[in-house]
Amino acid sequence: MRSYRETFDVCTRRKREVVDITETIRQACRGSGVRDGLCLVFPHHTSSAVYVSDSDRHLTDDLLDALARAVPEGEGYAHNRVDPKMNAEAHLMAVLAGHHILLPVSDGDLDLGLYQTIYYAEFDGCRPKGVLVKVVGE
Amino acid sequence: MRSYRETFDVCTRRKREVVDITETIRQACRGSGVRDGLCLVFPHHTSSAVYVSDSDRHLTDDLLDALARAVPEGEGYAHNRVDPKMNAEAHLMAVLAGHHILLPVSDGDLDLGLYQTIYYAEFDGCRPKGVLVKVVGE
Amino acid sequence: MRSYRETFDVCTRRKREVVDITETIRQACRGSGVRDGLCLVFPHHTSSAVYVSDSDRHLTDDLLDALARAVPEGEGYAHNRVDPKMNAEAHLMAVLAGHHILLPVSDGDLDLGLYQTIYYAEFDGCRPKGVLVKVVGE
User: What pTM did the predictor assign?
Assistant: First the structure.
């Protein structure tokens, strides 16, 4: 069995922003030496999510809007009363969108559908956030 | 280490429909030759979700209703303005319900609880959609 | 390849309650004999979720509130009309929060970020619920 570990940083310009990380994950996967297995993409922070979706920039805006409707500002979140710098909204959005993903690896490459794109969604950005890629297989 | 890959198609009659795929996944798992490991169920499309839930047809209707409340029609989604055939609602529902799942495999079979059923939720159906099953283990 | 399986029970005092299970998962992982691989945390029930989030008790209350807004009581769920003891709300919350998680294992330990905590969210508690931990790797 072969196991590969890599981390990279994402630093967004806006507090909430969605970044296409498909190529970064694809390169990690190809460089891992794993031909058949599984690739875990796991942010080392709790105010970010990773998800697979259709390749369209407008759709990423739609997702941020949908999450803002589900987790509206000013709901009197208990977490934010502890410290005004806290960001309950960001953590709740990460849980609803899904924190990490697992991708299939076949023939030494990501085994994705034609339009599948890997997105990193940042909900509390403007500083570097580490993302772990772990590939396990043979 | 052993690795197994299989794909199958789901073609629903309705645009939004939930299908019980437990037996298909169980047969793939049993035929994989893996006795202990992990089974990834990964749709190759971005307008479908896979999830584990209680075995009751009424509950699948409740989930479609809950997702329609979270992602209502006519919100002016940016994705749909690009092309009226686009379906932002379907993609957003897939992210909220969760696109893929990972199942435990023990003693050559799915290691599920008594009432756990595996569902494929289609949000943009009426055409064949591929689903990948990848089993990794020993 | 090495594979390890363990189950443990969670029994909450309240119907809806969130429990920090980080230490239980960490001990299972350390005892598994796997140095590099993946750790699946998979409840054997469909009215519970497992997720990774920031370490703060107030935030767990915020999550329960957010889920109660997304899945309000008294929506006339079809599942509950079958049997008044049924609990559609619990099953829907589990799907939205995410039923299971996959954690990276490196150097024989959980490979988490500094503030990442593993939570078990119960939506239909007051009785023992089994949770499966499956560690696969080398």
Answer: 0.98
